[in-house]
């Protein structure tokens, strides 16, 4: 079954997209064609969109689904009048919340992603710059300035997780790749041990790792199953010595991995619950 889905907003559409994706994830037997329609903020644009909805309905043999965050009632009614299954993601929440708070909503578009707290926005930008400057173990001498340090074998998901932590949480994130040199000595450098209280290890199933590496370097020893198995096995031995949290990225998304890291950090605001191991 094929269905067209429109994510519609009078602003960026980020909220409609995020909530819509969460709902669609429960229906993985259907192939959704996803169309993003931000800045539908005039009657003319809304009516043009209803024409696209009709075209999608004619093509699919079923009316399209519309996830929308429209605060303008007039534009909302135009979209509802189209041939679609319309879901207003704010409608069921804003009015009850307004009644509870005792104040009317501002009904200003784009508020959820506006720069309402300049200090935090600046912190996020600084964190992103830090993550990019301290990627792939470039500056281990900077680990003491990081909020989070990730370690793992090549292509286990360190860089995208660091960038996500920086972008969404404003955390200065760095990472250290475990290399053949580390495997030979069975240990990581002292600078990595020194940041053990904020260190997280990433692991991944060899089969998944092999597929990822094969895309990067097809047919190379680096992408062989034997190499992937050996890398994961030796990395696990190092993690055991370090005694740090180990997170599996095989089936978990970057968002899920990041949420686990945030939870552990919050649970250990004063450091790890167990005493730090001494570096042999």
UniProtKB/TrEMBL annotation:
Residues involved in ADP binding: 152-159
A UniProt-annotated Pfam family: Kinase-PPPase
Annotated catalysed reactions: [pyruvate, water dikinase] + ADP = [pyruvate, water dikinase]-phosphate + AMP + H(+); [pyruvate, water dikinase]-phosphate + phosphate + H(+) = [pyruvate, water dikinase] + diphosphate
EC number(s) from the headed UniProt entry: 2.7.11.33, 2.7.4.28
Family in the record: Belongs to the pyruvate, phosphate/water dikinase regulatory protein family. PSRP subfamily.
UniProt keyword Kinase present: yes
Role description: Bifunctional serine/threonine kinase and phosphorylase involved in the regulation of the phosphoenolpyruvate synthase (PEPS) by catalyzing its phosphorylation/dephosphorylation.
Source domain of life: Bacteria
Keywords: Kinase, Nucleotide-binding, Serine/threonine-protein kinase, Transferase
Protein name: Putative phosphoenolpyruvate synthase regulatory protein
Organism expressing this protein natively: Thiocystis violascens (strain ATCC 17096 / DSM 198 / 6111)
Keyword Transferase on entry: yes
A single GO molecular function term of this UniProt record: ADP binding
């Amino acid at each position: 079954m094929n269905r067209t889905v429109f994510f519609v907003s009078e602003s960026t559409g980020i909220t409609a997209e995020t909530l819509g994706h969460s709902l669609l994830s429960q229906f993985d037997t259907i192939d959704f064609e996803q169309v993003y329609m931000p800045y539908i903020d005039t009657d003319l644009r809304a009516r043009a969109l209803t024409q696209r909805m009709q075209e999608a309905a004619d093509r699919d043999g079923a009316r399209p689904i519309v996830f929308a965050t429209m605060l303008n009632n007039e534009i909302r009614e135009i979209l509802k009048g189209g041939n679609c299954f319309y879901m207003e993601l704010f409608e069921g929440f804003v009015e009850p919340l307004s009644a509870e708070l005792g104040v009317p909503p501002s009904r200003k578009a784009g508020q959820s992603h506006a720069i309402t707290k300049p200090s935090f926005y600046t912190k996020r930008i600084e964190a992103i710059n830090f993550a990019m400057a301290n990627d792939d173990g470039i500056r281990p001498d900077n680990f003491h300035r990081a909020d989070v340090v990730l370690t793992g074998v090549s292509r286990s998901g360190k860089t995208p997780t660091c960038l996500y932590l920086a972008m969404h949480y404003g955390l200065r994130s760095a990472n250290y790749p475990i290399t053949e040199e580390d495997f030979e000595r069975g240990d990581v450098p002292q600078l990595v041990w020194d940041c053990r209280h904020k260190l997280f290890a990433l692991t991944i199933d060899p089969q998944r790792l092999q597929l990822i590496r094969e895309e990067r370097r097809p047919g190379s020893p680096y992408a062989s199953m034997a190499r992937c198995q050996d890398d994961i096995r030796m990395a696990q031995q190092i993690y055991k010595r370090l005694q740090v949290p180990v997170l599996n990225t095989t089936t978990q998304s970057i968002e899920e991995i990041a949420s686990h890291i945030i939870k552990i950090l919050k649970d250990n605001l004063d450091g790890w619950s167990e005493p730090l191991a001494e570096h042999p």
